[in-house]
Design a protein that fits this description.
globular; hydrolase; binds 5-(aminomethyl)-2-methylpyrimidin-4-amine; mainly alpha; Heme Oxygenase, Chain A
Length: 222
């Protein structure tokens, strides 16, 4: 049986659930999350996005084909030209200025996660890098879908975090998530059991680091 992305998720089912259904996510969904926790998360996510852009630059360097190179370039361009601008604007709505963002210290959870992804990509090949990025690229779309499936989730003006959910349920994000799953499914189909085991370790570590990122938001840790 060829491997698929869903096999990675299934092999780390406990960690994946802890990430998708994290207390931060639940509170975001029902609107009870402390605004300070969300602001701390948003600030660190700005720093995360900058490192995430570097990971796409690394993906370009690691690309063996023109099609992979174009995909990495489009990802880098989307973050630098669109996502970061939207994030700065969203932070402004939450009372965080661009100047404050530019001078933020990185929290340890941000450092650990982003440098882990970059190191994995540096040491390995393009597939290692994509697997390290996949909890980020797939997880948030799944989180939006999970929140929408829950009765406790509050949508609309009654939830101050509604715009966040809307961003990740958007057609654009959901399409990007499906494209990433298709890319991974194609590559994973050819790997040996030993190689799959290595990739599972990367996927598990990146998922655990996503959990730490939520914890960092909840506890305001630096
Ligand atoms: C930490 C984290 N993980 C995932 C995403 C969604 N790209 C994000 N913005 N930040």
């Amino acid at each position: 049986m060829p491997y698929q992305f869903s096999d990675l998720r299934d092999s780390c089912a406990g960690e994946w659930r802890d990430y998708i259904e994290h207390r931060f996510v639940q509170q975001l969904g029902d609107g009870s999350l402390a605004p300070e926790a969300f602001q701390h998360y948003l600030k660190q996510d700005y720093l995360f996005l900058i490192q995430f852009a570097r990971a796409f630059a690394l993906a370009a360097y690691k690309s063996p084909t023109l099609s992979d190179l174009r995909q990495a370039k489009d990802g880098l361009q989307a973050i630098v030209d669109t996502e970061l601008g939207l994030h700065i604007e969203y932070c402004r709505e939450w009372g965080i200025s661009e100047e404050e963002l530019a001078n933020l210290p990185e929290a340890r959870a941000t450092l650990a996660y982003t440098r882990y992804v970059l190191d994995t990509g540096n040491r390995g090949d393009l597939l290692d890098l994509h697997v390290a990025l996949s909890p980020c690229m797939v997880g948030y779309g799944e989180i939006a879908n999970w929140l929408n499936s829950r009765e406790a989730t509050v949508r609309g003006d009654a939830n101050p975090y509604d715009a966040w959910i809307a961003m990740y349920e958007s057609e654009e994000f959901q399409d990007a998530m499906q494209a990433e799953i298709r890319w991974l499914d194609e590559r994973l189909a050819d790997v040996s059991p030993g190689r799959f085991e290595q990739l599972t370790r990367i996927f598990r570590d990146a998922t655990r680091l996503e959990i730490d990122f939520w914890n960092m938001g909840l506890t305001l840790s630096d």
